[in-house]
Amino acid sequence: MSELPFHAHLPIGEQLAPPTDGIPYWEICPYDGDLRIKVLDEPVLPEPPRHGEAGADDCNCTKSPDERVIWTDGQWVVRHMGEPGTVPTVMLSSVGHFDLSDMPAEVAATMGTMIQRLERAVLSLGGLGRVHINRWGDGGAHFHMWFFGRPIGMMQLRGTCLPLWEDVLPNMPHDLWVSAMTAVGEALAAGGGEARPV
Ligand SMILES: [Zn+2]
User: Fold this and answer.
1) Which domain of life is it from (predicted)?
2) In a domain? residue 50
3) How far is the CA of 63 from the centre of ligand 1 (A)?
4) 88: CA distance to ligand 1 center in Å?
5) pLDDT tens digits, residue range 156-167?
6) How large is the average pLDDT for residues 73-92?
7) Domain harbouring 161, CATH code
């Protein structure tokens, strides 16, 4: 197997023709009209370090552990995004500094319960059809997972394009955002842990 087995079929440096079907033509795509496809760049190796890659001392978990926290139980922490978004959005992180692949087994073992509790807490806001859960991990080395509440009935916001819609739609009113973030923290605290004021 090649040293880079998943690169050989990628058309790096080539201008691709627009697709004749696919996501740009689906109702969930926020963009309409003529789109061009970006040319793929050569791979960057080694990759540049992510935030916190050098360890806890280089990470917000040490520099500003209480920032934007709406709930914590000492093992998991839920944060708001610092300002209103289009939809209710919160981030779940481990308190300890690790990523998923090096997460201690005793922490990883509680993740399923934690994800379920947070989904239920977001759904308890009402008016939401689904909670989208995303984990990318390309920006920060400290394990974190995104939870987006999709407004019920908004069928164009289904699926993978919701973060793209977030980029183009107006944000919710500040008062609504504060009450929603407070309610998520309090809903979690009803099952244990401690809510923090927004
Ligand atoms: Zn960290």
Assistant:
1) Bacteria
2) no
3) 9
4) 24
5) 999 999 999 999
6) 98
7) 3.30.428.10
